[in-house]
Amino acid sequence: MRKMSVIALVAVLAFAVTAQAQYVNEVFEVPRISQPPTLDGMRGADEWAGALQLECSVSVILSDGAELGWLDIENQSTVRSVNQLNQSEGEDASVARTDADVSTQIFHAWDGDAMYYLGEVTDNVHDVEGGGEARAWWERDSFSLYIDLQNTKEEVTTCCDGPYTALNIVNFMGAPQSSSAISVTWERTIQNVRETTNDPDVIEGFEYGYSFVEDEFGGEADYVIEGAMPWETFQRFNLPATPTVGTEIGFEWLVPDPDGDDGYGGQIQCYGWADNPASFSTWLMSDAPAGPGAGTAVTQDSWGRVKATFNQ
Q1: I need a labelling partner for 287 at 20 to 30 A (CA). Which of 55, 72, 96, 220 fits?
Q2: Which is nearest to 224 in space by CA: 31, 44, 35, 29?
């Protein structure tokens, strides 16, 4: 099977987006949680009640293309998302590059201490081996949050060294945090360039819980990641102040899915294009309640989606 490095692949796709000079910038209200979640990799009965729920899946990408516009319909790249999954060795063609390959539901909430998320993954193959390079989080089942802490919406036309102002990437691997020294990877902007670290002193505060749930969501290797990212940790580099109600932060989700490949094995991207903050969607920190007693999750099709605008 043809292999392409993630850097080269994203560079090609970023160029395609830039050539179109058109993005969909959406704003999603993120409810404020009344009680921080217990990071055990399980969504309790009301622990995440009222949280913002977003889906990242091939179905969402296809819907984006149909509703918002295609950049390249053959390669399933849209104005705000892209299907970069591969058909791995031994993977059935009817499964590869579909929701049965990988799909996710992601719940979001915040408070004055941290940003929280819980990701439920439907997956057909569990793979956290990678190619042996510590920084290569894209070679392992995981969640990668691309977050522009100052919501710059700055146009970056070359991957992957910017120049950036406040781009951060927090990757939580699909394995217990205690199982590996590389289970948490943080890329932050230093002097306009992305710098990667697994240094425990630097990433202190980033924590997550993990559970492998087999076929819980309909796959064969499903798992859950439940994470907390303290504002204090982000303030060491690119976050100027603790967010309050009304603060806006840019974001996009990238979910790697290597499926046994030795190196980069594919991924999906939703709510933006990884290396170009101009394409990112926006979190709007809200005082709407989340947590025990808050009611059902807020989905992207209700008041959780505030507005959608095209920038050209």
Answers
A1: 55
A2: 44
Write the pLDDT tens digit of every residue in 129-161: 988 788 899 999 999 999 999 999 999 977 787
Residue (of 174, 171, 184) closest to 223 by Cα position: 174
Residue 258 falls within a domain, yes or no? yes
pLDDT of residue 52: 98
Q: Does residue 84 belong to any structural domain of this protein?
A: yes
Specify the CATH number for the domain of residue 216. 2.60.40.1190
Number of domains in the chain: 1
Position 19 in a domain: yes
Tell me the C-alpha distance between 136 and 43, whole Å: 28
In a domain, 309, yes or no: no
Q: Are 122 and 219 in contact (CB under 8 A)?
A: yes
Closest to 189 measured CA to CA, from 159, 157, 167, 161: 167
